[in-house]
């Protein structure tokens, strides 16, 4: 079994919300306090937790209480030295360093300097360091092996920062999202919902973004944010287990229905969608309002090909809107092979399950070329090639 966690962020994510969710899920606060002392920060701070209620729901709020002093401005090297000298679990050090390096890259891109030249202000302050290292400590204490995160709300409005008033999402968060093609959406709340610390943690640590991963739920931790919002300002940390050999990936499912377009155009559009990176495209006849006959077009694509596929649909069809959802899929490992047959070389797609060949399909175009050349039924050619391919892969054909 594989230990998995899912960060469910309906109102965004911040470092203190991560800590709250981890403590609520069972990570001992005393453990975090003890381990964080290894950082040897010169500033005195106190870590505390308390129940906090949002919209009638109780969650855990973790506070990093600091004295009234101006936080020092640190460079990336200062933070790296701080973490490397600390006596912390190796995985915690690795994660923490990667988070700050991602932050440095994002800030460097915003200000047009190198990552080493970046002056960390807010994110270099003591509370941000505690949030990041503490989150890594909590995840390591839980024995997490796979981390997933929901799509993130964009927020809106403005926020005051060291460089003045900035639009939300702030530039560093935008750059972090762009670096991983993070799925985002608007929940209608014009506040800063995703902080640079929260964004950096997920961009660095999450293996995938989107819908809930398949898991057996063992524990749920609730971490409270500060602001009162129309939605409960709570980060939900789902902790569970899944089969160790179950490799899941997140894909986008795009859908639109069309009732005023020639089927020939749809066929042409399908070819363009595959060229744009779609994994699959299919259509279904449907009855729309007022009993109009229409076609439901469904496109499955990688997250980084959403924009390209939507552009094809908008440009080539009459649709006025496209729905998105994010789903997880399990795909067999596969590879293309060229096999020698009595009729010549033919490409076949070979699928594996736990290093065993369980499915083989000859390429349609190759079979058609041979069928036309040899004047042999296509079906017979396909049936002939499959056992040959299984034999060449040292498997008996059933």
Automatic annotation (TrEMBL):
Question: Keywords assigned by UniProt?
Answer: Lyase, Nickel
Protein name, entry field: Putative nickel insertion protein
Answer whether the UniProt record assigns the keyword DNA repair to this protein. Answer: no
Q: Transmembrane region positions?
A: none
Matching NCBIfam families: nickel pincer cofactor biosynthesis protein LarC
Question: One MF term from GO for this chain?
Answer: nickel cation binding
The family note in this entry says: Belongs to the LarC family.
Q: One Pfam match, by short name?
A: Ni_insertion
Q: Does the keyword Lyase apply?
A: yes
Q: Which range is the signal sequence, renumbered to this chain?
A: none
